């Protein structure tokens, strides 16, 4: 089978809720990353075969196939098509998979992938208000067949985060320590300039706005998000934010034609379903299945990015797999850097690629929990 290569990866800063990027239209936020991607690489814009973007809650400013509209808003050629993917939190990671699969099949050679989310303008609950179940405290009461199979169990991310914490014996204090470490790692990465190569400044915002100087005392003072979730607070949850990211995936033929230097190769890609009531545990099973398919073990993996939807999700994965936290989310995770839903997959992959390059690592693995009990896994091999 043909190989799919990553040539470039970049992102906007993550703007905090109501922060420096909150006034920017979602189309323009996505166009910013796409335009920068095209300008940085020696491929005529008209030669791109497709644009595949992740986005969740495709309503309001995010409606209308934002992959296509953002490409056009960036002033790029009319002939290039685009499609928007929604696999919940894994939307842009799935966009990477679809692009890689197109290249591996030999049907396309040059694809721009990415993701965007403006959570200030379109809050996470907006899809529910529009009648689109999101898996956010949603009982799916309208469906007789769902009720017949799953009963009245809540499809609720907070319920799932608390259930995971209880099942894996992860206390609130343990999660707060994990969260503080996430912020400290992100602050160190910013101070040391680790993100400078991957961030394309926008609207005067030059670095991520979301990491905070905090303390265990401050975190302990926060109220839980609800009586049913005594260990789950804002401190141990991912941050809503505004961001976009983009990546260039090409074939071996495109590398030769345009004289490009590949930075990484897609070594493995897969997706797996798990129990939708547990909701956030799928990365555990998906990682095990992916490694088995790839003929690898975690000993082969130099770095891991697992989305910190909640501290309990990443901590349960670490407990279950035995992988080192020292090699996981090394520059902070979504608790510090934010979780811009549709953009998170490519944001994580962008950070993973750059950190493998900085450290001289070979293999990196990325996974994340997704609404409905899903998880994507991508393994990349650094080449340069």
Automatic annotation (TrEMBL):
Transmembrane segments: none annotated. SUPFAM superfamilies: Thiolase-like (SSF53901). The active site is at residues 89, 339, 369. Residues 5-253 form the Thiolase N-terminal domain. Residues 260-382 form the Thiolase C-terminal domain. Its EC number is 2.3.1.16. GO terms for molecular function: acetyl-CoA C-acyltransferase activity. Pfam families: Thiolase_C, Thiolase_N. It is an enzyme of class 2 (transferase). PANTHER family: ACETYL-COA C-ACYLTRANSFERASE, BLR7806 PROTEIN. Belongs to the thiolase-like superfamily. Thiolase family. NCBIfam families: AcCoA-C-Actrans, PRK07801.1. This is Acetyl-CoA acetyltransferase. It comes from Shewanella pealeana (strain ATCC 700345 / ANG-SQ1).
């Amino acid at each position: 089978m043909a190989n799919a290569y990553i040539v470039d990866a970049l992102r906007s800063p993550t703007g905090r809720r109501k922060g420096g990027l909150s006034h920017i239209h979602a189309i323009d936020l996505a166009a910013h990353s796409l335009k920068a991607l095209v300008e940085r690489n020696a491929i005529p814009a008209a030669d791109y075969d497709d644009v595949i973007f992740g986005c969740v809650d495709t309503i309001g400013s995010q409606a209308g196939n934002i992959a296509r509209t953002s490409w056009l808003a960036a002033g790029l050629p009319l002939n290039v098509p685009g499609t928007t993917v929604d696999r919940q939190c894994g939307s842009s990671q799935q966009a990477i998979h679809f692009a890689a699969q197109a290249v591996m099949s030999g049907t396309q050679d040059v694809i721009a992938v990415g993701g965007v989310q403006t959570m200030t303008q379109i809050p996470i609950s907006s899809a529910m208000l529009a009648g689109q179940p999101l898996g956010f405290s949603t009982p799916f009461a309208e469906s007789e067949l769902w009720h017949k199979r799953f009963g009245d169990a809540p499809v609720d991310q907070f319920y799932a985060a608390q259930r995971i914490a209880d099942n894996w014996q992860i206390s609130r204090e343990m999660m707060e320590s994990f969260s503080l470490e996430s912020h400290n790692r992100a602050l160190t990465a910013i101070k040391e300039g680790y993100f400078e190569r991957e961030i394309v400044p926008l609207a005067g915002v030059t670095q991520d706005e979301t990491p905070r100087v905090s303390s265990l005392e401050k975190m302990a003072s926060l109220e839980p998000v609800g009586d049913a979730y005594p260990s789950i607070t804002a401190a141990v949850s991912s941050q809503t934010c505004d961001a976009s990211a983009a990546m260039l995936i090409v074939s071996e033929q495109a590398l030769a034609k345009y004289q490009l230097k590949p930075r990484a190769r897609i070594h493995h890609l897969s997706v797996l379903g798990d129990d939708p009531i547990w909701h956030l545990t799928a990365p555990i099973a998906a990682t095990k299945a992916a490694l088995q398919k790839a003929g690898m073990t975690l000993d082969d993996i130099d770095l891991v990015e697992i989305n910190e939807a909640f501290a309990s999700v990443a901590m349960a994965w670490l407990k279950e797999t035995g992988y080192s936290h020292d090699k996981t989310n090394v520059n902070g995770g979504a608790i510090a850097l934010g979780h811009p839903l549709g953009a998170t997959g490519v944001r994580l992959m962008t950070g993973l690629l750059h950190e493998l390059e900085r450290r001289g690592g070979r293999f990196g693995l990325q996974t994340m929990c997704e609404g409905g009990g899903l998880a994507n896994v991508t393994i990349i091999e650094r080449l340069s």
